[in-house]
Predict the 3D structure of the following.
Amino acid sequence: MAATFLVVPQWQGSGSTRAMRLIDGAEAIRGDLPAAATVTVEIPLGAGSDEGTTVRRLSALRSVRDAQLAALSNVSGLAITIGGDCGVELAAIEHANSGQEAMAVIWLDAHPDLNTPDTSPSDAFTGMVLRALLGDGTPGLVPQKPLEPSRTIVAGVRNVDDGESEYLGSSSVRVLEVLDVGAQSIREALTASGATSVYLHIDLDVLDPSEFGGVSDPMPFGLTLAMLIEVIATAKAALPLAGAGIAGFAPASPEAAADDLGSILRIIGALSS
């Protein structure tokens, strides 16, 4: 069955001064997707309120999550979510996991996004998304069915906060640093997890800046595009794909988006083929 693309141009989860460029990035990708297979989720115009918490723009995040879950309820088959910031994975992974018996998540990202509201140095939700999906976070942003840490794999990470490092040291989440990422390590991690399906999260900052420049927080020594495509192919060969998400495209300008769209379309092709 063909994939459905869910475009969610959310910027409210980001803590970057370039946050609004995530809208331009999502719109640029949408322009190259098949219109008949693409659904766009409307986001609030305003930043939203923290509602007395330490999570910035919490009300907007909840609004987008609810709208995204409603849109996903009408999708049959494979859903590929296009962000926006990594917060778009909150609804996408909750939806995918609700229909799976034992879903693994491979979180391909320069940052593990494992902070809680208490440990986050920025109060930006993009750095808390995976931890919320694992069951630790602000009420209303934690799914009814959290992810299982032993079936969660963070790969390509190279910028870890102190609170995240402490959590990783005491949890069963598996970490694959850039030099450890490859077909064999991905197969081994999925086999060890005991999962029966897999969700792939791709923050484009997992890629090395020499190959991909349109991100808010470029981090050196990342994956090559060829390595990322190999990871996708390996994961799909090992287990059925339960869903996927691409986040973090923040081109310097709408015109500059064209420089990276070829790479993004290769990633989308690898996910949807």
Q: What stands out?
A: The chain has a mean pLDDT of 96.
